[in-house]
Design a protein that fits this description.
There is one protein chain. With 306 residues, the chain is mainly α. It has one domain: ABC transporter involved in vitamin B12 uptake, BtuC (Orthogonal Bundle), CATH 1.10.3470. It is built from ten helices and two strands. The chain has a two-stranded antiparallel ribbon with strand order 1-2. Strand 1 and strand 2 form a beta hairpin. The relative contact order is 0.19.
Length: 306
């Protein structure tokens, strides 16, 4: 792999990591504060992408579709919390897994019924078309750089909200000891609802940003959900800082590993076997890294409350 291709893969890995962070940030708050396993969180990412495609089609503008899709993702998240999820908070984790898996099936079939099974496309906004010269002979798409910038800005805003505001103090306290927070007179149910809605909006934002570069289709959030759980385990459950660092790490390992492993295997195997073996090892690489980190830090890189 030459230097140019390695740089492109690194940038793609960072961009992928930013999308993972937007999904995992809400998931780690929900899991950390509420002790609630929400398998349907990836569906919020998918709904954000579909809402972006729908509003972009009827308004003719990505910039109008963006706030409308975010509002729609927030409303849907709050509705799901009110209608389904709040009735599961006191249930065991198995009940939560089964119920939220049912929500995945329902919403996946719902988008098929409303939008059909054919993938939808969202055009890249005119302002962000073209590329930025990163080095001689390399133009990197402007829109992908915009995803990086938007993700970093969102991460900074989220850090400020969690670390420097009263609401963030309550969220951090809830992640550390929710029963004690309730005993001190805080309306934990209302806090749960706000955290859940905010997490759903973050996942929807990831879907909106991904819509112009990925196909919008049913089930598109399933793979992201698996990696988002890897991110929160590596970063530390309930830790936004951990989710950010782990998301970038997972994005880089996943992207660069898929490009690099076949080349590494060619040092030991013939090209055909190297390609197959490299692809197999690349798909395992993220989980190997997770196991290695947990062997050293079982609570993750930045556990909540530390």
């Amino acid at each position: 792999m030459n230097t140019t291709l390695l740089l492109v893969q690194a940038l793609n890995g960072l961009q992928f990591g930013i999308l993972l962070f937007l999904i995992a940030a809400g998931l780690t708050l929900v899991f950390g504060v509420m002790d609630f396993i929400n398998l349907a969180h990836g569906v919020q990412y998918m709904l954000g992408a579909y809402l972006a495609a729908y509003f972009a089609a009827i308004t003719g503008s990505f910039w109008l579709a963006l706030p409308l899709a975010l509002l729609g993702a927030l409303v849907i998240g709050l509705l799901l919390e009110f209608l389904v999820f709040r009735h599961l908070y006191d249930r065991d984790h198995l009940s939560q897994v089964l119920a939220t898996f049912g929500v995945i099936l329902f919403l996946n079939q719902g988008v098929k019924a409303v939008f059909g099974t054919a993938p939808l496309q969202v055009p890249v906004p005119d302002l962000l078309t073209g590329g930025v010269r990163v080095m001689d002979g390399l133009l990197y798409p402007t829109y992908r750089i915009a995803i990086l910038a938007a993700g970093l800005a969102t991460a900074g805003l989220l850090w400020f909200l969690v670390e420097r505001t009263k609401a963030g103090m309550l969220v951090r306290a809830g992640a550390s000891n929710a029963p004690m927070l309730s005993a001190l007179g805080v309306d934990v149910k209302r806090l749960f609802m706000l955290v859940f809605g905010f997490g759903a909006m973050l996942a929807g934002f990831a879907g909106v940003m991904a819509a112009p570069i990925l196909s919008v289709e049913p089930g598109m959030g399933d793979n992201f959900l698996i990696l988002a759980f890897v991110v929160i385990v590596i970063g530390g459950i309930g830790s936004v800082r951990g989710a950010f660092v782990a998301a970038l790490l997972v994005g880089l390992v996943e992207t660069i590993g898929r490009g690099l492993m076949p080349d590494v295997m060619r040092l030991f195997l013939d090209p055909s076997a190297a390609r197959q073996t490299g692809a197999a090892l690349a798909s395992m690489l993220v989980y190997i890294v997770m196991a290695a980190i947990l062997a050293v830090r079982p609570a993750g890189l930045f556990p909540a409350g530390r």
